[in-house]
Each structure stands twice: as C-alpha cells, then as structure tokens.
Design goal:
Layout lengths: L2 H23 L3 H8 L4 H29 L2 H19 L5 H29 L3 H25 L7 H17 L15 H4 L16 H5 L1
Helix pairs in contact: 1-5, 1-6, 1-7, 2-3, 3-5, 4-5, 4-7
Length: 217
C-alpha cells in the first residue's frame, strides 16, 4: 500500500467514526424523548434545534481561540473526549430543563469536529478534488452503521443510544491522536466580530450589482 493510499484509508476510518457517533443518536432521539421520557412535540423540536444552536456557539471558542493555538488532531481528541463524557451524563437526564442544556453543550463540542475533520483532511491530501469525495463517502456509511448498530441493540427508544454514541466518541478521540500532525493556524489577531461572521454585514455597504436588464441595455 502506497503512503497516499494509507493516508486515504486512515482518513476514511476517521470519517466513518465521526458520523457513526452522529447516526447513533440523532435519527432515533425523537422516539426516545417521546416514548421514554414523555416529552411533548415542542420539547422534541427544541431538542433537535440543539444541533443548530451548537453550530452557532462553537465558532466563538473554536474559530477564535482553539484552532489558532492547538494542533487539529489534538483538538479533535479533546472535543471528542468532552463530548463522550457529556453524552454519558445526558443519558441519565430525564427532565427537559436539564436535558436540553446538556444536549446543547454536547452539540457545541461535536459540531466543530466536522469542519476540523474536513480541514485536516484537505491539509494532507495531495489532490483534494479527486481524493476528498472518496473519503467523505465514508461519512454516509458511518451514519448508517451507527443507526443499524443501535437498531441491533434495540435501543431506539432508550438511553442506550447516548451510551453507544459516547462509547464511539471515546474510540474516536483515541483514533484522532493517530492522525497526521496538523499544526495550528498562524496566530493572528482576530476580533469577536470576525469570529461570529458579523464582518459579512459590511457587504451591505457595497452598491448592488446592476440588474441583467440594465446590463443588457
């Protein structure tokens, strides 16, 4: 096996494990919250919004601080470990007032791994356009495998799904430490406004492009 083929294999396993975690709990969570914990529709909807909230919060400490000072593979391992411990706690929570914040915190640790994993892969692949899609396809396989594994354990309506995801997250954390070393970005001064993407609002100050009708005339 050539070094490039071995690298692709390692990154493919990484993608598989990363999405196995997500697939082990996300599709079945609604059934668990409804049948086991007795949550209502509004509460279940709010629980599924936790992922989006985590995506909004995470860039503040990952984009602004963490990935500027820590190697990607170490940061991934740290986030996965904290996420695993959080999932173990979440599996024991049965009150919405505690479950919801706990799930948001977990999503805040998991969501950054998606972008970090992609950037790490692209940093080491020699031909991104050709190689990255072949690696990324293992994400879908991992998602399906997580759901199938949970089904084989008959855990769709129990907290087993969070325990399974937590155990997989610990395996994922250990595996991340074996990935190629990816040093942090060069530390540059960045404001909170940039980290939150608010600098994009400056685009409103620019005049709009001419319409197609005016351009044709």
């Amino acid at each position: 096996m050539t070094p490039i083929s071995y690298l692709k294999l390692r990154l493919s396993v990484f993608m598989f494990l990363q999405y196995f975690i997500w697939g082990a709990w996300f599709p079945s969570m609604g059934a668990y919250l409804s049948k086991n914990l007795g949550f209502g529709g509004a509460q279940i909807g709010a629980a599924y919004s936790a992922f989006a909230i985590g995506a909004i919060i995470s860039p503040v400490f990952v984009g602004l601080i963490a990935d500027r000072f820590f190697a990607s593979e170490k940061l991934l391992a740290c986030l996965a470990t904290v996420g695993a411990l959080t999932l173990f706690v979440v599996s024991r929570l049965d009150e919405f007032g505690a479950f919801y914040p706990g799930l948001i915190f977990y999503c805040t640790t998991y969501v950054p791994t998606l972008a970090l994993g992609n950037s790490l892969s692209m940093a080491h692949l020699p031909d991104i356009k050709k190689s990255f899609p072949h690696i990324k396809i293992l994400s879908a396989v991992g998602w399906i495998a997580g759901s199938v594994t949970l089904s084989s354990l008959h855990g769709e309506q129990s907290s087993i799904q969070f325990l399974l995801a937590g155990a997989a997250s610990l395996v994922f954390a250990g595996y991340c430490l074996t990935l190629p070393h990816t040093p942090p970005k060069k530390a540059v001064r960045a404001s909170l406004r940039v980290a939150l993407g608010l600098d994009a609002l400056d685009l409103f100050k620019r005049p709009s492009l001419p319409s197609s009708s005016s351009a044709s005339s």
